[in-house]
Fold this protein.
Amino acid sequence: MVRVDGKGEAKSLIRVRELDKTYRRGEEEIHVLQGLNLDVDPGEFVVFMGPSGSGKTTLLNLLGGLDVPSHGSISVAGDELTRMSAHKLTEWRARHVGFVFQMYNLIPVLTAFQNVELPLLLTKLSKSQRRDHVEAALAIVGLGDRMEHYPRQLSGGQEQRAAIARAIIADPTFLLCDEPTGDLDRKSADEILELLTRLSKEHGKTILMVTHDPMAARRAQVVLHLDKGVLTDGDRAGAAP
Amino acid sequence: MKYLPLVLANLLRRKVRTALTVGSFGVALFLFGILAVVRGAFRQGIDVAGADRVVVVNKVSIIQPLPIAYREQILRIPGVKDITYDNWFGGVYQDERNFIPQFAIDVESQRRVFPELVVPEDQWKAFVEDRQGAIAGEDTAKRFGWKVGDRIPIMGTIFPGVWQFNLRGIYTGKRRDDDRTQFWFHYDYLEEKRQWGKGMVGWYTVRIDDPDHAPAIARAIDERFANSPYETKTDTEKAFAASFVKQAGNIELLILAIGGVVFFTLLLVTGNTMAIAVRERVGEMAVLKALGFTDGFLLGLVLGEAVLISLAGAVLGLLACKLFTLGGDPTHGMLPFFYLPASAIAAGLALAVAVGALAGILPATSAMRLRVVDALRRV
């Protein structure tokens, strides 16, 4: 169940209360997010839509522990993010968050295998265990035969699939996807959306995705609208095939 | 070790730039190695100087002689155990480039005062019995292909004329750094043939009973000859060797100055390279941070890259230097100890690591302080 009225249950996976984010530009204060509440249960596929500058990416950054709010609280699986030091937050990200970016953000000098392996370097897994995990993740995203390819040798869709494999490799609590289809053609975008839908339905992954793409929004169980820093309840789509 | 592929991949992304930076380190460390070799060659005499020996020279200058009559007087000074004397000959073998240090020695006392320079007993006996006999260090004999029994003509520069010697023996040293380039012959032969300076010697080398007594004995010797026509200046053999080196200028300062300038330049070059490398990868570093890599990891990553570059260059430079020194003294005798010691290699590697780390510290700190949100916005 996803709620934006601040009345969600205490057992919600993600629990955001009275979240404000304000930037200063000289003397001017810019209120990017204002009094935002959000409750997300495990396994939900939530899409945030809204015009440019509405605060979508800022919200994802805050939920992913990449930025700190000006006011309010964010709790994920019982961990209160706003009370963590920068170092703790970094460690927390490694365990709980899988990021998928619009521009894929693979390391160009590493192969698909090495890119996907990166989050596992932070674990105590042995080399052979890491290999098994990476092969499994790349197989899930359909890149089992592209493991030794460098990003420049992959198409945009394949790069994004590798990025998704990197995001899920450490089995994070939830995935944060910032316009994952924004740089792809329709066919590749559909493949990525299909993959994310499968991760949500078959693997029970909690996914929070920012997009401008109505087709992408149709895949989600819930679509929320963000405008001028205020989050409003949208459609409960029921996930289109 | 699991991060090594990441470090190597980063270093190899701009192969030419990395190669040039490694090359800069290589050239600098080659130069460092050569400077260390030259310094070692100059310091060799100081390093192997006997602690229980003092050297007596003319107070005016080392090139001024002392009377041979001083020998008996010095021997009577308390604490003096033995004494020998030498005279610089300064001749030329075949060509002026063939420099070898030649000494007229006191055959009777030489081996007692310098026991570390060893001559086989039969060769020494043959040398003693031949007034024109000579003994060469094994390096010199090897350099000119001399064998025992060879007739060796030396053209005198200080003492004119062609001096004929019979090579009766070849000496070696007990320690690795002992000078094996000298050429010895009978003082009596010099005394017999020279036209001037008869009854004089170049300097005395005195063995004493206890190294701790060296200052007192040196003082006693100098006081003994004070106000005489030939006043003396007595020093430990180490100080004597050091003063000998100083005649060629302040080698240490020169080496330090050259080395300092080279490494400071290297610091700037590497620092700039690393700064560019970090600037190019701001987005990637932000992604690593987003994935959960800590600030400390990024600091270590950049520092590791800088140190790896410097170490690779240092290994190449020092290896090239070592190979160069294995070819022997390129100055044909001016630097008989053309040798790169393990201590210099270790110092070079340590210096390279320090310069690499120092050059990497600013870019590494900026990578560490990178704000993920700002950096991702720029990607």
In short: The two ends of chain B are 29 Å apart (CA to CA). Chain B touches chain A at residues 2-3, 5-6, 9-10, 12-13, 283-284, 287-295, 372-373, 376, 379 (CB under 8 Å). The first helix of chain B runs from residue 4 to 11. DSSP finds 14 helices and twelve strands in chain B.
